[in-house]
From TrEMBL:
This is MEIOB-like N-terminal domain-containing protein. InterPro entries: MEIOB, NA-bd_OB-fold, OB_MEIOB_N. Belongs to the MEIOB family. It comes from Henosepilachna vigintioctopunctata. SUPFAM superfamilies: Nucleic acid-binding proteins (SSF50249). GO terms for molecular function: single-stranded DNA 3'-5' DNA exonuclease activity; single-stranded DNA binding. The keyword Lipoprotein does not apply. One of its GO terms (biological process) is resolution of meiotic recombination intermediates. Residues 8-145 form the MEIOB-like N-terminal domain. Keywords: DNA-binding, Meiosis. The keyword Zinc does not apply.
């Protein structure tokens, strides 16, 4: 800073376009990646310049968008040296009245100030080391919008209708993915990271970050512990995941562990809420009934008709029903090569894939800073048939599988093939009374989950088996 220039210390609340030598102290609360372009006005062909956009706050009520223009080297240096959470001094910014119909406003965070700040080669940004630094840091936990976020359940329920809309979300971190590099349509490459947020209404929504600033910050987010309030997330539809997803946009502002009653309630819920592995996160939470209360007898054909009706009417996202099926188990591969169990990280509950270790980039087990035994549970695929048809890929899993097979997963893993075969032939090709719950998540393929399986007496079968 040039000491020969008299600067006027001013707050955002008292900005005026006539102030030319302003010094404003505050904290950076949002930041976009810089953009580089060729300077067409330069006498030196090929000269490049760049622009950096960020959002700046100095009180609970006042925050403003800042645009910093300059030579590429200078702007990229500023981008490297200043980050969200830094308390800074803005020196000699140009103060202009915002044009609400300006196209640029559509791609910037919503702010409270009627002005915007423009900085250039005659401006400066400095780190602030004053005694009041902690007061500015505290602003980082104050949401930039009043409570009014959308429950994650409601976003999923919108399906394709919510594509290309924006929503505010309050969510707890369930999973932080690994940094990935993808090829763009223009031949270039870009990095991204995906996280999963959940709340009391739904086990999760995928949120993608392309912004380098937040990709870096994601490494500190902890499953169950970190609560995020994100404004103006871009809602999209993923054909790959067959579900609603979200993208952090240039309009978004992210508040970590925000202050507020709703955030406190979510943080308390997140401590004990079940975390779903990322590959099944799009399943809806199912309210499981008492198994013995499942008495509505259905045939395979009736179950399939119910599923087909949901597909044809477009109501699969709300599909959920129970059934008591008297069917023959025609496939139960306990002693062969079929899938029998899943393995999850004992710390963060992330599904462990073929490489045999946790892949959650923030998990201490994956970082080799903690040693926690993985959790193993049954996940068996079963085929059931009756006189009307066949149900493939029915799931016998978890504690239900242990009750049906009459052994724990640990006991099963120690068994010989002969012992496993004996358990298999107790049910294989036998007519069983099988209680099922059928549900779908976000219009995906329905899940048929076995809740109990037993061998009924012949009289019960004759009296209750349906004709079709």
């Amino acid at each position: 800073m040039n000491d020969n220039i008299v600067l006027q210390r001013v707050t955002l609340m008292h900005l005026e376009p006539t102030i030319f030598n302003a010094l404003i102290v505050g904290v950076i609360i949002a930041k976009q990646d810089p953009r580089q372009f060729v300077d067409s006005k330069s006498s030196d062909p090929g000269t490049s310049r760049a622009v950096l956009n960020f959002t700046f706050r100095d009180s609970p009520q006042d925050f403003i968008n800042v645009t910093y223009w300059g030579k590429s080297d200078a702007i990229f240096a500023i981008d490297e040296n200043f980050h969200v959470g830094d308390v800074v001094e803005l020196v000699r910014p140009q103060i202009t009245i915002r044009k609400y119909n300006d196209k640029g406003e559509q791609f910037r965070p919503k702010v409270t100030s009627p002005y915007s700040l423009t900085m250039n080669d005659f401006s400066n940004i400095l780190r602030h080391d004053g005694v009041n630094e902690v007061n500015y840091k505290n602003l980082l936990r104050l949401p930039t919008k009043p409570p009014g976020f959308v429950p994650i359940r409601d976003i999923h329920n919108g399906g394709l209708a919510v594509k290309d809309t924006y929503a505010d979300i309050l969510g707890a971190v369930a999973h932080v993915g690994n940094l990935r590099t993808v090829k763009l349509k223009n031949g270039g490459e870009a990095s991204l990271i995906e996280i999963i947020l959940f709340d009391q209404t739904n086990p999760g929504i995928r949120v993608t970050f392309w912004n380098r600033e937040y990709i870096g910050r994601a490494s500190s987010w902890q499953p169950r512990s970190t609560i995020l309030f994100i404004t103006d997330l871009n809602i999209d539809w993923s054909g790959y995941h067959k579900s609603v997803v979200a993208k952090f946009s240039n309009k978004s502002i992210l508040t970590e562990n925000p202050v507020g009653r709703e955030a406190e309630k979510l943080a308390e819920y997140a401590k004990t809420a079940p975390l779903h592995a990322p590959n099944i996160i799009d399943q809806l939470t199912v309210n499981l009934p008492d198994v013995q209360m499942i008495q509505n007898v259905m045939s395979v054909q009736q179950i399939q008709n119910r599923i087909n009706l949901g597909q044809e009417s477009g109501t699969m996202q709300n599909l959920q029903f129970t059934a008591l099926l008297y069917g023959v188990i025609t496939q139960l591969d306990l002693d062969g090569f079929g899938r029998l169990f899943t393995k999850k990280c004992g710390h963060c509950k992330t599904l462990i894939k073929l490489i045999g270790k946790c892949e959650n980039a923030t998990c201490p087990v994956a970082l080799n800073t903690a040693l926690v035994e993985p959790e193993i549970s049954f996940d068996i695929r079963v085929t059931i048939s009756d006189h009307t048809g066949t149900l493939n890929d029915c799931r016998l899993s978890g504690k239900t599988a242990e009750m049906v097979l009459d052994c724990s997963i640990q006991e099963f893993l120690q068994m010989s093939d002969d012992d496993k075969a004996r358990i298999k032939w107790k049910y294989l090709l036998e007519r069983c009374a099988i209680r099922l719950i059928v549900f779908s998540a976000n219009n995906q393929k329905p899940i048929i989950s076995i809740q109990s399986c037993s061998i009924p007496d012949g009289e019960e079968v004759v009296q209750r088996i349906p004709v079709y």
